[in-house]
Amino acid sequence: MYGKAFAPEYQGALTTLSVNSSLVDVLTAGTEQLRAAERAGERREAARSGLAVAEAHRRLGQVEDADRAWKASYRAAREAEDDAAMAWALWSGGTLARQRGALALAWRLLGLAAELGERGGDIVVRGYSLAGMAETGRIQGDYTAVGALHEQLLAEARKRGEARHTVWALEGIAQMHRNTGSYDTAYAMFEEAAEIAGRADDRRGHAWALRGLADIVSVRDGDAERALGLLAEAEVTCREMNLSSALAYNHKMRGNVLYRAGRYVAARDTYEQALAEFRAMNEPRGEALSRLGLAKSLAQLGRDLEETAAELAELAGTLERIGLRHARQMVARAQAEFGVEVAVEPKGAWTAAAASVEAGR
Q: What is the pTM of this model?
């Protein structure tokens, strides 16, 4: 049904790289090939090897280098008049923009990538770009607007037997079910994603699925030890593949599990670790979520209530600026939990996001 997972972002002379290749190895090979292509004046090859360089930098959390690399890849592709290569570069740039919390820019770049991919006849980059748009809307918390797009992309991936994309779609839909309280459905989808990723040797997708399962096991079953075991298993993959962002989110989830178990000192220390990791890679969404967990842990350990209230109010403003609806609701719940003033739910940002998603669909 599903073949081995592959990495379509590794192109040209780099197609021999595996989806499980260490990002350090990808960066080394991509940089060498990029320099060779530039010396030879091969603009198309420079664009495609530059894409691998951009993606390696992004996944390693080296955002400034990633930003320069995707733009250079786009320029080379434009000079080569290669629409598909231009689309891949824009996909990389849009994904980086989402990682940095620039959600409006992410939406715009991914939309352009989808259009160019269709024009260039590359259905894979078109699918990846639409998936990126769906994920951007999901992160914003606008599930109504992007739920159907997630389901459509899942159906397309299943039809093509594309394991990696099927795993991504399952995990995205599962996360929406988890966030709306449908824990059993979410667990089943994360479980299927883990099974498909395991059979297809998609270690990155498997690690993310284990993180999702750990979350459900913790919040639904109250089984902290099993959840921590799943996260420990996923962490091995994150470290072996140098998945900086995935590792930081793994640590943030570990903090969540510890907090729910009432182990507030350990939760505080883990949130502090995740916060430092997110700050090092300039990832504002992860930083804000880690700050929220840390604020709650410190409050449980006796922090002054006024300081907690001020921290939560600042976080509410930060999340409103980024446009993260579900995370903003998490802050409101924390404000209610500790009996501090609950800010008014912002409206305009969510309405605009929904309209944007619907227009894009």
A: 0.85
